[in-house]
Write a structure and sequence with these properties.
This protein is low in regular secondary structure. 10% of the residues lie in helices and 8% in strands.
């Protein structure tokens, strides 16, 4: 034995193999061989420190904090009853920008604002000549390519 201090013995009671590349358990800080380095393989008493899982609410997809000793299913159930932001009866409006042209009742998902009068219009009335824009300079032509004469 030229290097008596090289390597470490596996901390598993049934193994004690001399390993030149031992692996240290993150939870219990003991050295193990390649066969026993996982928490399950050496029955680590501190495995609960590493096995931390945060449940996610199935409705709002937000993480629900669980304290030590609490049952995750019960905590998620209480979250759904009290704190959950998911409301199926309250639908989110998609088309919320109504066209400002008097006779038009169309709504758009995105706001299409006129650069001259700052009104919100649908795609059909987005150009100043299509909604009879009163503000701004002299119009060059209509939005549909026709030139006024």
């Amino acid at each position: 034995m030229e290097f008596p201090d090289l390597g470490k013995h596996c901390s598993e009671k049934t193994c004690k193999q001399l390993d030149f590349l031992p692996l240290k358990c993150d939870a219990c800080k003991q050295d193990f061989c390649k066969d026993h380095f996982t928490c399950a393989a050496h029955r680590c008493p501190f495995a609960f420190k590493k096995d931390v899982q945060v449940p996610v609410c199935p409705l709002c997809n937000n993480p629900v904090p669980v304290k030590k000793g609490e049952i995750p299913d019960v905590v998620v159930g209480e979250h759904i009853d009290r704190d959950c932001n998911y409301h199926p009866w309250k639908k989110e409006k998609i088309f919320m920008y109504r066209c400002s042209k008097e006779s038009c009742k169309k709504k758009e998902m995105l706001q299409v604002a006129c650069d001259q009068c700052r009104g919100s219009f649908c795609i059909q009335h987005r150009h100043p000549l299509d909604h009879s824009c009163k503000h701004g300079g002299r119009p060059i032509g209509t939005a549909r390519g026709k030139v006024k004469r």
